[in-house]
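A quick word before the example. In earlier lectures we treated sequence and structure as two separate objects. From today on, think of them as two lines of the same record. Here is CoA:oxalate CoA-transferase written that way.
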Amino acid sequence: MRAAGPLSGVRVTDLSRVLAGPYATMLLADMGADVIKIEQPGTGDETRAWGPPHAGGEAAYYLALNRGKRSLAVDLKDPRTQELVRELCVRSDVVVQNFRPGVADRLGLGATRLRAANPALVYCSVSGFGARREPADRPGFDAVIQAESGLMSVTGDEPTKVGVAITDVLAALNAAVGILGALYRRTMTGRGDHVEVSLLDSALSGMVNLAQTAIVSGEEPARHGNAHPSIVPYQAFRTRDGQIMVAAGNDTLFRSLCAALDLPALAEDPRYSSNRSRVAHRDSLVPIIQSRLSTQDSKWWVDVLLERGIPVGEIRGVRDALAAAARAGDPATFTVQHPTAGPLDLVRPGFSVSGQSFGSPPPLLGEHSAEILTELGLSPDRIAALSGAGLIGTQEKS
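And the structure line, produced from the sequence above:
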């Protein structure tokens, strides 16, 4: 059962692995596309081995990125099965790959060859540094991209990596947006496109105001840890029992904050009356606010500040954050019936579409190989022969 959605009827061949590509294709599956995940027999996507923890023998990392797909385990290096994958790609609406630049062409699965056979194909290439930068085959993992993009230089109290592979996530979102745009244009022109996405470009564009600040000022942006370089107060504060994030993003909110803290004189002080002056006098203002917030528990302050419309939130752990979303009436998870893990909670996407539903857990390695090859017209005997030769892997549900 695949999700109903605006991409129902769209077939995606997913040649990608690890994070950026699989996350992008999972979003397409969430919108109803039939996503066929191509994996190496025996090992599959590298994230299948990225554990612990595991659920039903599957790594949590893999489970986070592959719901709603079908798995075809096939050897891409053998000419016999390579041709089958090429045929599958040509029959698809979308192909996504994140090989190093040049590898897809060597496998006969490059954009030029496939789009020559199917001009309506939308082909998406995801890479670390982009195919046009030298060296063209430079490998790129998130940690390296965070370093090279300047993201680490503006994070933390010293250069610090963001806790999640954020450049992969940004690249996945950019890939999904580019694919959707290309599919829309195809409805008008009948022709596909080659969408190219890199983690570095995604990270650089994701630097938004900080990148523009560097351009305008000609200086490197400073690190502000859990504070904001251009807005005060907009940072973490300690309470009696934890920490909260306060985001008084304009002068009106600052005056409301002063009232909530029972510090009305701050709002009238010329050093703090405008955001520009608050930024200039950050060092004297923040300790006053910190001293006041230390007198009560986090929940007490959240209730008081929210009552006055001030953006505020507790600094939560991940489990607490998921539980809080559910308590607020809109759970961030949904449950699927996994063939080996049983009932399995997964984190839903950050958007919803009318009529959208989720019914397909992340596939076992090769779970749908026979089904997909049958759709390509292969006979049971041919499928059995390929399986016997170790060129495909099958693992049907029990």
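Notice the following. DSSP finds 17 helices and 14 strands in the chain. We will return to this example when we discuss secondary structure assignment.
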